[in-house]
Amino acid sequence: MPTHVPEPAPTPALADTGPLDRERAHLAASRTALRAMRADVEALDLGNVTANWVNTQILERQMAERVKALADLSDTPLFFGRLDYLHAPPLSAPPPLSTPLERGHPHEQGDPHGAEEAEGAEGERFYVGRRHVHDVDGDPMVIDWRAPVSQAFYRASRKDPMDLALRRRFGYTGGDLTAYEDEHLSDPAEASATSKLLQQEIERPRVGPMRDIVATIQPEQDEIVRSGLSGSVCVQGGPGTGKTAVGLHRVAYLLYAHRERLARTGTLVVGPNRSFLHYIEQVLPALGELTVGQATVDDLVAHVEVRGTDDPRAALVKGDARMAEVLRRALHSHVTMPTEPVVVVRGSRRWRVPAYELEEIVRQLLDRDIRYGAAREALPQRVAHAVLVRMERAGEAPDDRVQDTVARTGAVKAAVKTVWPAVDPAKLVLRLLADPDFLAEHAAGLLDEDERKAILWTKPARSVRSAKWSAADAVLIDEATDLIRRTPSLGHVVLDEAQDLSPMQYRAVGRRCTTGSATVLGDLAQGTTPWATRSWEEALAHLGKRDAVVEELTAGFRVPTDVIAYASRLLPHIAPGLTPVASIRDNPGFFAVRPITGSGEVVSACRELLGHEGSVGLIAADARVPELARELTAAGLGHVAPGEETTHDTRLTLVPASLAKGLEYDYVVLDEPCAVVDAEPDERTGLRRLYVALTRAVSGLIVTHAAPLPEQLLPH
């Protein structure tokens, strides 16, 4: 597998001297074509295609998004691969284009086959890139990586060449094409070899936000990325296996294949914290997808202001799935059976519905098990219908308007208010947490006395506004809200770092995709909450996605061999059944464990690692962060907090261990492993937190400790 690293690029005036120059010429032509596509969109006259101001506004918004998606990022290659097929892939006619914005952008129609991407291409050669680019005649110059014709770039092998004569990978320096590498998959005479360009891309230094992996997606990852919209997928993946990137790229693929449907229903990425969301926020825009929402679970359930915290015991009980039944019982306790008839006066006549018939109506609504609010809205219509039956029996001919009028009469409204009163979800939760008798009544057989005491407030709040709600309380309010009125469902939800969610949090996320699908991402070994997921089967049941397919990624692309081997010493103690990650990196990485006598040596380790290219993270137990910040400042080492942008001059991030999950740095200094473990409420959670901190490094790790190391890290 020859790798070509040429001399500096010739000037345009020089003649073509080889394949690399031809590839550079195609890159330059593709960039020109992309600029022309953008100019075409900007030049559209919407007055000729819209009938009213509403359509104009919608198209203007679509056009602005399209223009943004067609941005030519100078440091982002337009294509990263080339496929030369032995035979032309089968093509089908493209779907009709319904608006000017869709012309020249086939995947906006949601074509699942991508056939029109290939139509008109030169011979059987296709350039694979982050987005579709076509020339002035509409012939594609770059094929979207999500099109089926591009699939061979990720899955073809010598065992199954997928009709490829050649797969070419390109190497870039910044935005300049500087190298290429060929595989002749259908040539039995060519020996198999590891792709050096692929390895270089995997091991490239990490500076700034997370980037896409479209040039390095592996076959097992591609299989998950291209799985269908109708099914949910759960990805168990150890550190550095690319599960987050796989989840984000799956969203991009689904938007390509099902754009119209997801445009109506929406997509959402749910992450563990704002720092993590900030870290991943550029991945989808780099792939041309600008409409995917991002949120934390706390954002989803923000019905009240969270100003309080729970101790671990209270949070554990509040997060238990049994609380859903407690809330359901408490809510329906407000429904009382009628004891008086309803008498409706219309003109000179009085229409009487007896109490026993009203009770039958109420019981029918309860048996249907519909939302509390929906049943309450249906009740006056049911009562009014009973009145209309009596009118018809008396020889009258009432219509629907009469039924609506009867449903709005004072007598019917008063009966509904008494029998099925309106309930505020926050007030319902407030009463449960403040009233021991009310809680005991509705938690009978579900929570024992100790569990009830754990969640009861010692000083009950007077009102919803004055209460010091905790994050777990907000989830309970969200559950109560859904019991009253159904939560709208999205088309697809990606849930990352899912292992840390409580059962009630899973239910909160699951409500957002009841009629859609989900991609669940996580690592059982990295669960660092007292309620951390014990099994994916249990978690998926709480999410409402029992039928989700569970996939496991075990090939490590990020963490060096020596580092992951050291961290894996903890696995028998934190997740005995999991397969250790096997690093596929050529570079074993830099790794050292250093006994120290003071914080000054931690600063020295940071200074040492800053001598290398790339980002540096100093990870420490939360309580030690202020002291280390003072030491770094005194030593003149500038640093930022997680979520803040690093710069060329400030590449060091000081990371509390509680925020390290999901982040990555080229080099890491891990301060005092024992302090990281001891900061957690129990040893298993502490060891899991340590496992997370140990596996944030991409190129090298220095572990510094004055206290003895945890015995689980010692060789046995």
Automatic annotation (TrEMBL):
Biased segments, Pro residues type: 1-11
Composition skew (Basic and acidic residues), residue ranges: 102-120
Positions with a binding annotation for ATP: G237, G238, P239, G240, T241, G242, K243, T244
InterPro entries: DNA_helicase_UvrD/REP, P-loop_NTPase, UvrD-like_ATP-bd
Keyword Chloroplast: no
Entry superkingdom: Bacteria
Residue ranges of every copy of the UvrD-like helicase ATP-binding domain listed in the record: 216-569
Region (Disordered): 1-21, 91-120
Keywords: ATP-binding, Helicase, Hydrolase, Nucleotide-binding
Protein name per Swiss-Prot or TrEMBL: AAA family ATPase
Organism this protein belongs to: Streptomyces cathayae
